[in-house]
Write a structure and sequence with these properties.
Number of strands: 3
Order of helices and strands: EHHEEHHH
Structural class: alpha+beta
Shape: flat
Strand order of the largest sheet: 1-3-2
Strand content: 5-15%
Distance between the termini: 68 Å
CATH topology of one domain: Arc Repressor Mutant, subunit A
Largest sheet: 3 strands, antiparallel
Number of helices: 5
CATH architecture of one domain: Orthogonal Bundle
């Protein structure tokens, strides 16, 4: 195993053009490239990152392709925020 086969999230961010925060979210959701964690250090196997990227290639935005290891359960942040909002004053008055 060669030392340069593994890279930090910063290196993977440069390769994928994804922010380090996005990579962190993908790790938490289990939807990103596989990684190794030793203590607090996160390392990615760079050939695996390139394979992961190749598996996500699309020809159009409407193309749906099943990607191994991708659950497809991608939360809609707008919907999630809307669901957590407190009822408005007018809604509270009309229900009372």
């Amino acid at each position: 195993m060669e030392h340069d086969e593994y890279g930090t999230d910063k290196k993977v961010s440069e390769i994928t053009a994804l922010s380090r925060q996005t990579l962190k979210k993908l790790r938490m959701g289990g939807n990103g490239p596989h990684y190794v964690k030793v203590g607090r250090a996160i390392r990615y196997h760079l050939p695996t990152v390139l394979t992961w990227m190749a598996q996500h290639q699309r020809r159009s935005t409407s193309e749906i392709v099943s990607v191994p290891g991708d659950s497809g359960n991608h939360a809609n942040p707008t919907k999630a925020r809307t669901a957590r909002r407190a009822p408005t004053r007018s809604a509270a008055r009309s229900s009372g």
